[in-house]
Amino acid sequence: MALQLENIITPTARSRETLILIEHNLATPWLSIVQNILKNSSGGVIVCLCLLHPPADVLPRQLLENDVQRVRIIDWTGVVPGYEDSKNEVSSLEWLVSEVQSVLDNSPDCPVHFFVDSPSTLCDDLESPAQAYKILKKWHANVSERPSPSRMILPVPSQSLLLPLLIPPAFAPAIAHLILHPPSLLLYISTEYLTLPPPHSPVTKFWPLFSGLTSRGEAEHLIWGANGSGWEDETVVEVFIRSATGRKTVDRTLEGWGKNRPCKLEELELLNVMWTKRAGSQFKPEADPTQNLSFNLSLTESQQQSRAQVPLPYAHEGQPVLSDSKPSAIFYDPDSADDIDEDDPDEDLDI
Fold this sequence. Notes:
alpha/beta
């Protein structure tokens, strides 16, 4: 069965997700995933808006060296709000919005892969999540009108005020939402709660634990805390796929990202300890409680047959007794020691 990440990274003409939202935190690397998406976007135009990172640090080297003719770069890293005149800042932001719209409008009639390296920076520059949302929605509408598989790629920190605005269907009905987690989080759940990810554990048990820990920011504490493991090159990817065609469905899976490619969780080297512990506990023989006793609890075959032939004392309890004999009667034969008085002891009573 193909991985969801493979279908997202290498899209086809039937792909319908017009938005790839990559939710990350300080403990998860996201750049390699974006570079693979751009590198595998064969055909079409790549529009890259750099607000925080220089283009050479974000775009794949292979793309810049061999396929630069289909790349449109808008470098905004040299503009820092607060260091220019207020009027110039407003005009600069207006120029940026119009420039991006112009590049999208003037692109040929082919798939467009539009990448914004830091939507949170745009939100900070505008000082308004709502304003940033309107601009991004306008750009996304332009991308959605392009031939498939046109997509908008947005890496957003999990603590960004812009993130809750981008997830609902009002922004993009069809979305591939990738939430990145460090492998240490799964190791923590397997050790502290003895719970492995599905299908090795029930879905109803794993997901509430997993969602609760991620919502409290436990992942960053496991990496950067006092006893944290430090930066990890591998990543656990929680994949949400929301479809907008026909019956709307949402798929949720956990997959891995290691050695610059998608993989199964079992292939992540950092999780080898978790699977090894499970295999050891799964095949460990249970202790026999009847060992080292001073008496024998087992029966031979002949003893088992004899025990099976013993009639049970209450086997017919509650069933009526079927008999053709006369009604029973009680006969009493007094012995010599009995003191029997033939007179009626209550004859003086008027009964």
